[in-house]
Amino acid sequence: MFESLQDRLGNAFQKFKGQKQLTEDNVKEGLREVRLALLEADVNFKVVKQFVDQVKERALGEEVMKGLDPSQQIVKVVNDELVELLGGEQQGVDVKARPLKLMMVGLQGSGKTTSSGKLALYLRKNHGKKPYLVPADVYRPAAIDQLTTLARQLDVPVYPSTTDMNPVDICKDALVKAEEQGCDLVLFDTAGRLHIDEKLMDELENIKKECSPQEILFVADAMTGQDAVTVAEAFNEKLDISGVVLTKMDGDARGGAALSIKSVTGKSVKFVGVGEKLSELELFHPDRIASRILG
Ligand code: GDP
C-alpha cells in the first residue's frame, strides 16, 4: 500500500536536507517532485494542483516552527495536508440506530458482497450488532449464492431471495423478517453492473426511498484508481452516498483512489478491505495512513 508514493516523497524531501530555511526557490523545486510523485500515484490532477498550491502557501507563509529544520517543516506541512486530503477525522458508522440499515452499492466485482460479510462480522464483533444479510442482486444467481454462503460461514440469518423477486420488495420484506428474528443490523447487498446503468440506478434510488438506510456505502476497487473516483461521483450524484469502502487496498501500491476520492466527491472513505478473508476489513484512519505514506 502506497509503497511507490512513499519512495518518491522520500526523495522529494531529501532536497530540503542541509537547507537553512524554506525559500520560494527550494520549496518550488521540492514541490515539483511532490507533484510528480502524486501524479505517478494516479492522484486526480486537479487534486494534485490544489494540494501542491496549499502546501506551498503554508510552507512559505508559516512562522518558522521552533526546533524544526526546513526538511522537518516541509514534512509536517505535507503530513497535515495529506491528512486533510484523506478525509481529516476518522469516519466510521454511527451504530446506535436499531435497526441500523446499510446499503452497499457499486460496480460488479468491486467487492460489495465480500464487504457486506466483512461489515457484518466487524459490527458484530466490535459493537455487538446482530446482522441480517439481504441479497438484493437478483440478476446473478451466483450473487445470491455467494452472500448466502458467507452468511452460513458467519452463522447469521440471510433473506431467502430468489431471482424471480423484485429487489425493492426483497429489501422491504427483509426489514420485517430481520425484526422478527431480533436482528438490529440489516445489510442490503445490491446489484452492480459492469458499467453505470440508468435502470440499475433507478432501482437503487427506489430501495433508498423505500428502506431509508442510514448509510449508503459506495464500494470501490482501489486498484482501479481514477476510474473508481469517476464512478463514485456518478453514484454520489444519484444516491447521495454517505461514505466509501475501498477494497483491495492490499493489492494497490499507488493509492490514487484513496487520495482523490474525498476531495472529488466530498465523501470520506470509512473502511478499507485489505484481503479476501472476512476479517480483513479495517477502519480508515487518515492520520495513520498519512504517517505511513511519509514513512
Ligand atoms: P461484488 O461483485 O461487488 O459483490 O464483488 P465480490 O465481493 O464478489 O468481490 C470480487 C472479488 O474481489 C472476489 O474474488 C473477492 O474475494 C475479492 N475481494 C473483495 N475485497 C477484497 C479485498 O479487500 N482484498 C482482496 N485481495 N480481494 C478482495
Give the strand order, joined by hyphens, for the main sheet: 2-3-1-4-5-6-7
**Structural class of the helix and strand makeup?**
alpha/beta
Which geometry do the CA atoms define? elongated
The helix count comes to 11
**What compounds are bound to the protein?**
guanosine-5'-diphosphate
Q: Level of helix content?
A: 40-55%
Cα-based radius of gyration, to the nearest Å: 21 Å
* Extended strand count: 7
**Amino-to-carboxy terminus distance:** 12 Å
The whole-number mean of residue pLDDT values reads 94
Order of helices and strands: HHHHEHEHHEHEHEHEEH
Q: What proportion of the residues form beta strands (DSSP E)?
A: 5-15%
Question: Major sheet: size, sense and barrel closure?
Answer: 7 strands, mixed
* Low-confidence blocks of residues: none
